[in-house]
């Protein structure tokens, strides 16, 4: 099998992706592969570059103010090579996106139904009636109650959960192969969040959709994703199946994220294990591993040289010099982390 | 150790002793009128008859979906909005009456909000913001600034580096530390934390939660902690109050409420928290649809249209909040003997 066939099997493939705004290198060498029909979660703190990575797949940044390097291929297309016209076809047609705040993503002065049919008619030669019929079917698919009536709603007339369902319907309107979701449930109540996460899982299964979801919530990631990639300061520090990352983490940052969760604290009143300090300033990136200043295992080498990506087991890659020690520390159970912020 | 010297406030002392609740809320009601078209006048029943006590030195967690009235309750407690009816006693004295005027009450009750940026004055340095409260309450300027610096150090922000900065020059986690320092500047006894850690990244959230625990022990504080994240509430709270559409559904020790919930709504809330177990993902959402609108809450039990246990009687009778086991009070007919619900436990013999 040749290399091109391999690429064709991937729904999304990023290699050596670097994105900079001015002097700030926000994404700094990301390699990532999503197989068809899979769901991948990108998790990380704010400023880790996870949303920028996601948005670069649709090239949502103004060309003048951003610099994208590397290779992006999605739904079998070389995204960076697309001209303006082809890019417009690609967005929504091959790959589409849902956002954190659907109220801002919808146009407030048109009904939701009108926005969906407009999108369908932009991409296909289809009568207005057929487009509306498809919009109605989509509303039923994402389980919006009384769909016929809801198509004629303006975005503000819907509740938060329903708007996010409508957003998903809009994203699916032109039968894309890949769905990108940027913090799709962060603005929703927990009771609604779980419904939307289950819906995404169902769509992945029934439509063979490939999904990339960006979230800061490890719990939400585990609920939808087959694979999880952990980002820190513009780099992917650990990637593997959900099971590998959550059960057998090998990067100190992943371990810190798992340990700092409140449900991890067994005794009430006991202190949570925290990751000391705060994320680095991306404009003045320190040499070596970006996590080193906050890491409980950092040694001199970490502060000098960026660790290469090593494979722990098939499909489980970690960028750290001290994966063995990190894994051993995790298996040894919770213990006081060396540095503690006052 | 106290950063702040005892103030001149005669109300600051503990009056009723440890057994008296620090805050006692009874029959609290707040309705907001809505003007929509020419139809009959409607009201949002944001808080509709809420009773609870906050004991001295405890942390009471308040949970519920959006629109359940948890933030309105917090604002009513702080007096940021006026209550329609209901009584509030602070250490045994009625708030807003002669013995406990709002001004002296507010010195003892402070609040931290979710949006750390919006709650700081963008034109004031961090130090000025923290010193502002003490200054208007009669602390000499120099002393207030010293107090602010001591508090900054206490919340983990080096005064030399941070005192002169403006809110936009520091990160979200640091801003929330400033807000906490400001809330403590008047040496309050009660601190309301309204989604105070929700906007923070997980690793920062853990740091701030630890800080809150330390400060509570150090200053002998009482917290009301409002959050939609049950895991955080479980971690920090001694007791939990679950609200639904402006009423209390369940209240009790957090270990018992969150480990063995009695109200079907509490059960559904717990089931909707994402599991962290890849082999055991959530299969079914217990609650369908969005939280209902508090404009026209359903009759009877407000939860009955979404409840798996609902029966005819639930649509007619509003369940009272009654104890089901030690310290746990639940408003659900299915848990109350003699309520007419088929799942109700048999009448307990007189104890």
TrEMBL record, chain A:
Gene3D superfamilies cross-referenced by the UniProt entry: P-loop containing nucleotide triphosphate hydrolases
PROSITE patterns assigned to the protein according to its UniProt record, in alphabetical order: ABC_TRANSPORTER_1 (PS00211), ABC_TRANSPORTER_2 (PS50893)
Keyword Nucleotide-binding: yes
Compartment(s): Cell inner membrane
Lineage: Bacteria, Pseudomonadati, Pseudomonadota, Alphaproteobacteria, Hyphomicrobiales
Native organism: Methylobacterium persicinum
Keywords: ATP-binding, Cell membrane, Membrane, Nucleotide-binding, Transport
NCBIfam families linked to this entry: oligo_HPY (TIGR01727)
An annotated Gene Ontology molecular function: ATP binding
Name of the protein in question: Peptide/nickel transport system ATP-binding protein
Coiled-coil boundaries: none
Topology of the protein relative to the lipid bilayer: Peripheral membrane protein
Family membership: Belongs to the ABC transporter superfamily.
InterPro entries attached to this UniProt entry: AAA+_ATPase, ABC_Ni/Peptide_Import, ABC_transporter-like_ATP-bd, ABC_transporter-like_CS, Oligopep_ABC_C, P-loop_NTPase
ABC transporter domain segment(s): 12-258
Chief localization: membrane
Automatic annotation (TrEMBL), chain B:
Molecular function in Gene Ontology: ATP binding
Annotated SMART domains: AAA (SM00382)
Principal location listed in the UniProt entry: membrane
All residue ranges annotated as the ABC transporter domain in the record: 23-270
Signal peptide stretch: none
Compartmental location: Cell inner membrane
Catalyzed reactions: glutathione(out) + ATP + H2O = glutathione(in) + ADP + phosphate + H(+)
EC number, as in UniProt: 7.4.2.10
Keyword line: ATP-binding, Cell inner membrane, Cell membrane, Hydrolase, Membrane, Nucleotide-binding, Repeat, Translocase, Transport
Membrane topology value: Peripheral membrane protein
Domain of life: Bacteria
NCBIfam families assigned to the protein according to its UniProt record, in alphabetical order: oligo_HPY (TIGR01727)
UniProt family annotation: Belongs to the ABC transporter superfamily. Glutathione importer (TC 3.A.1.5.11) family.
Assembly mode: The complex is composed of two ATP-binding proteins (GsiA), two transmembrane proteins (GsiC and GsiD) and a solute-binding protein (GsiB).
Function: Part of the ABC transporter complex GsiABCD involved in glutathione import. Responsible for energy coupling to the transport system.
Protein name: Glutathione import ATP-binding protein GsiA
Gene source species: Methylobacterium persicinum
